[in-house]
Every structure is written in structure tokens, then in C-alpha cells.
């Protein structure tokens, strides 16, 4: 017997949570930036990013931008997943994608810091 997928606003809302959560995180961090100097409580905190104020500023700015970029496709994907997939499958895929979207900026930013991309912006 074939499973029937039915659209509900609740399913759409549940499927939109990963993208919306990433968007809210980046909006809050944009509104309340971590400051010019590295600190141990708030911001993009890795050994490389806290090595200098330039690296700190670059890493925080870049992580916010990446979260903003990754949030929109996740929110857009909620609609087709709500229409064409059952709730369990949709949530598995979307929440897994959110996990990747949260971890991938670490890879991108750490590589850029290692290459010294944060020093290119200095005059």
C-alpha cells in the first residue's frame, strides 16, 4: 500500500525550523556583534580566530555571512519536503542539512584563516 503525503501547515512549520533557526542565529549575532577584541564567551571561538583581532573580526563576519547564505535554501527546501515527503523523512534530511550547515563554516573559515585570507583586507 502506498503512503499518502498530506500537506499541513504544522508539517511546513516543523520543516522550516532548521532554516529559520539558522536565520535567527545570524540575525541575533549581526544585531549584537561579539566585539572587536577576541573574548572567551561570545562569537566564533577557535584557536586561529582568537589569535588576533583581525582574525577574530574576519571569522565572525564570515560565519554570520555563511549562516545567512545557508539559511535561505533550508527554508526554501521546507516547501517541497512538506509536499512530497513524509514528516519523518523530511525532518531527517532537513535537520541533517542544518547540522552540515552549522559545521561547514568551521571548515571554510579555518581554511581561510590558515591561508591568511583575513590579512588580505588590511591596508
Describe this structure in words.
The structure is a single chain. The chain has 123 residues and is mainly α. The chain has one domain (9-119). It has three helices and no strands. The chain has helices at residues 9-31, 53-84, 87-115. The longest helix is centred in the middle third of the chain and has 32 residues, at 53-84. It starts with 8 loop residues before the first helix and ends in an 8-residue tail after the last helix. The mean pLDDT is 91.
SSE arrangement:
Layout: H1 9-31, H2 53-84, H3 87-115
List the keywords.
mainly alpha; 123 residues; 68% helix; elongated
Short summary:
By secondary structure, the chain is mainly alpha-helical. The chain is about 70% helix and about 0% strand. The chain is built from three helices and no strands.
Helix vs. strand class: mainly alpha
Number of structurally distinct domains? 1
What proportion of the residues form beta strands (DSSP E)?
A: under 5%
Helix content: 55-70%
Largest sheet: none
Globular, elongated, flat, extended or rod-shaped: what is the shape?
Answer: elongated
Mean pLDDT comes to: 91
Beginning-to-end CA distance, first to last residue = 67 Å
Number of strands: 0
- What's the helix-strand series? HHH
Number of helices: 3
Low-confidence regions: none
Give Rg in angstroms. Answer: 18 Å
Amino acid at each position: 500500500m502506498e503512503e499518502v503525503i498530506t500537506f499541513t501547515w504544522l508539517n511546513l512549520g516543523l520543516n522550516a525550523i532548521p532554516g529559520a533557526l539558522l536565520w535567527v542565529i545570524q540575525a541575533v549575532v549581526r544585531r549584537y556583534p561579539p566585539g572587536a577584541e577576541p573574548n572567551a564567551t561570545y562569537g566564533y571561538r577557535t584557536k586561529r580566530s582568537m589569535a588576533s583581532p583581525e582574525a577574530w573580526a574576519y571569522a565572525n563576519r564570515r560565519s554570520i555571512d555563511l549562516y545567512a547564505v545557508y539559511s535561505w535554501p533550508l527554508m526554501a527546501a521546507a516547501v517541497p519536503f512538506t509536499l512530497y515527503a513524509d514528516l519523518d523523512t523530511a525532518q531527517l534530511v532537513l535537520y541533517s542539512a542544518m547540522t552540515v550547515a552549522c559545521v561547514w563554516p568551521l571548515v571554510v573559515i579555518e581554511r581561510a584563516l590558515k591561508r591568511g585570507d583575513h590579512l588580505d583586507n588590511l591596508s
